[in-house]
Here is the input.
Amino acid sequence: MPAAKASSLALVCGDDEFAVKQRARQLYQQWAEELGGMDHEIIEASVSNSGDALKAVGRLREALNTLPFFGSGKVVWLRDCNFLGDERTASSAAVTETLGELAEELKKFAWQNVRLLISAGKVDKRKTFFKTLDKIGTVENFSAWSADDKDWAERAEVAARTAIRARQKDISEEALAELVNRTGPNARQLDSETEKLCLFVGDRKKIEFTDVAAICTRNKTARAFALGDALGDRDLPRLLKRLDEELWEMKSDKDKSEIGLLYGLIGKIRAMLLLKEMLREGWIKPEMDYNRFKAQMERVPADKVPADKRFNPLALNPYVLYKALPQAKKYTPSELVRAMDLLLRCNQRLVSSNLDEALVLQQALVQIVAPQAVAA
Here is the structure.
């Protein structure tokens, strides 16, 4: 059985839809330029039922077996395929059987003048079709960024810097961190905001923090950070206003909850506590320059901090700590410990009582932020 060369058969897949589409388009254009000619075919494979899935596979078979007329080679792209995962369509017996037959055909296919590109969302790696593609071709998987990933911010910074340099621009470290902070783990929005920034600065080569502040939109994740920033700044009017905005948005967003807001606030207090401890240990010093602050964080001895990432400052995005550094001065260590206790009791009341959730949160935040004896 002749095996396909890695450069003749490729599957680009993953739950990062933006990255998958971008990479698949790039690969298709690259292959089309390498082979030349005008016989390349794109087959839409985003279907709503098993019948349409079988038709898409039928068109793919026809395309693979139709020889190119006007060039030395041919690229076939099965685009946005949505029946390779665990969807209802993919679970159809007819679709499963047809994909199994297609897998056997691809094993025996002569790839001299034909290249096949398949782009898809999530793919079931247990199925025969995926295993065949992985064995005889190349598989590229793109996972979506998640706020739970320790390195999502670093990956986002690399992607943004690459996109900005491709447009012959540069960006300061603080501006880059703020851009990532505003967009959160969202590759599509990051690309959109990056393009908007480059247009905004015009002929100027360097993007600065003020540019990001002036033009970039805050997404849902960043707006949640704004609530924590108001808490860190000990600004009660702004804090209650931000809380009202979050509670209002919650009415139309099923993914948001009072408990989720509470956990974000706990994370903010924890970050300030960690900063207090690092300052006390002498691992860092108050620093207003982001680059120098990052350098200090990189020198913190890893063996001196807890392995549990909830209590490990090195597991946090350094920009989050940098933003919290001046805020930590607004609270004493004992006030921060008391704040954690108040938020714990708030959590218990949200879970076990029938009290109004908004009122419970407001009371806890007022108690934390209310003027007391404040020391640096």
In short: The mean pLDDT is 86.
